[in-house]
Amino acid sequence: MCESIVFWGNMKKILILLIVLVAAGGGIAWYYRQAGPDQSLNRLAVYTVSPQNMLISVTEGGTLGAVNEITITSELEGNAQIIQLVPEGTIVKKGDLLVELDSSDLQERLSQQQINYQNALSTFTRAEEDLAIQKSQNESNIREAELAVDFARIDLEKYRDGDWPQDRKNAISAITIAEAELKRSQDRLTWTKQLEGQGYATRTEMEADTLTVTRKELELEQAREKLRLLEKYEYPQKLRKLQAEEERKLEEMERVKVRALSSLSQKEADLESKKATLELQDAKLQRLMAQLDKTRIVAPQGGMVVYASSTGNRRYNQAQIVEGATVRQRQELIKLPDTSQMQVEVKVHESRMNQISRGQMAYVVIDAMPDRRFRGRVSKIGLLPDAQSNWMNPDLKVYSTEIIIEEPLPPDVKPGLSARAEIIVQKLEDVLTVPIQSVTSVGDDQVCYLAGVTPTPVVVEIGAYNKSHIHILKGLEAGQVVMLNPPKTEDPTSLQSGVMKESEVTREDAEPRVPPPAETVVAEVTEEKSAAVDDVETRFQQALARMPEERREQVREAWKELSAEARLEMLQRMSQRARGAQRGTGE
């Protein structure tokens, strides 16, 4: 009986507790139904707009490396054993010994090759002397033939350049004198005719002057005929005679030379054979000497010694770089970075590329010493996305950016350390900003929601942004309170995530159509491509004008090396980055 009373008492307590919990749950549900769950949470997630300073920067992680780094490889043919190796981490100067390879077998081959070279040199010297003796026997005959040719050539040149110009000059002078005398006679006759008409001269005087003119005309004609005969007959005839004599002497000289060459052909052939043998032996000797020099590898510049097998990209079948190891030709042995000047290579997302330019100030923090900061500047920006990152993630487009550290680093800083770089883009003072998550897209507008019982959307104009805040150019005032998380909207078309709005699509656009023939498609694509190529230069100049002045020359030089298709692709990426910057989208 007692146990039954206790049991029913416990059941009563449990029922009362269940009733209280159900009532509390109903009250909470009624509260959320009246206010809305999103508005209840948003009452706590708000931000008060106020003027403040805003730093625009790009922060990325990267790897520390040397500005100047040389890879030392084995240039020795075949395989060789390392007999001496500078310790890894040693700071060396230019000309210091880095690696010495075993050269014992090479020295033996070099000694034997020197003997072969001396034998070939002796044989070549004898053949050369025999040829010289044979040449001296024919020199006198060739000299006489050449002398006869010289005499014939002198006679030809004497007539062509001396006698003939003088004869022609005399003939021309005679014509000139005859023309002058004829002119003077004609002038005298004209004057006499005038005087005879006036009665001051007799007819006899006029007839005498007329006769003089006739005589001078005949003399002029004779002088001209003499020049014609001289140029047409006498000069070509005599010139051809002298040329024929010169040709005969030349032919005789050629016959003498042919006979001399015939007697020397065997000597020369023997000499060429001995010369080829000597050159072959000399080439082998020089190659072995060069190979011997390559057994001692010295530093081409100062820097810190890093073994190639320690860089993390060693092949699975490549041996460690240690004394006694065997290395092959062209195998990488040592990396020699110049630690006097270091840089950080970072990957910048494509959405921030329009903010980066060469020469911008940057600050670098090395992970191994997080309490120190080093000043640097952007020295190089990749023109195309990083190929390795693109291969690992095709949707990720990042650009390699190098930052040279201007301040001296501690001596124990080595290449390969992880580092972070913050590139200073701009510093805004006393501007209105809001957190990035407060801005959302509604249709084609950027909107912030003012906090209240009913959130009020306000269209804003945005400016520069960083990882946390965005600059508000228009639309908000200081003191206004905005919601950090935009409320859900009942209109599914207010937040446009697609390319087209529903109102922009007609019924005809939604109807399926039969695709045109392949030939028509090819023709249309060709026409569109041709129009794009014609307009590409204008689009490039417009895009170039929007870039920072520091990057224009670098982009212009790279533009010249690209094909037409690559130029169109580059313009598309530049346009996408420009639209991303205008919309204020973050990474």
Descriptive notes:
- By secondary structure, the protein is α+β, with helices and mostly antiparallel strands.
- The chain contains nine helices and 21 strands.
- It has a six-stranded antiparallel β-barrel. It has a four-stranded antiparallel beta sheet with strand order 7-6-4-10, with no helix packed on it. The protein has a three-stranded antiparallel beta sheet with strand order 3-11-9, with no helix packed on it.
- Strand 13 and strand 14 (374-381) form a beta hairpin.
- Helix 3 runs antiparallel to helix 4 (203-293) and helix 7 crosses helix 9 (564-583).
- The protein is flat, with a radius of gyration of 50 Å.
- The chain starts with a helix and ends with a helix.
Largest sheet: 6 strands, antiparallel, barrel
Order of helices and strands: HHEEEEEEHHEEEEEEEEHEEEEEEEHHHH
**Strand content bin:** 15-25%
Oligomer: single chain
Helix content: 40-55%
Given helix and strand content, the structural type is alpha+beta
Report, as a whole number of angstroms, the end-to-end distance.
Answer: 74 Å
Number of H/I helices: 9
Query: What is the strand tally?
Result: 21
Average pLDDT taken over every residue: 80
Keywords:
50% helix, disordered N terminus, 9 helices, 22% strand, 587 residues, single chain, alpha+beta, 4-stranded antiparallel β-sheet, 6-stranded antiparallel β-barrel
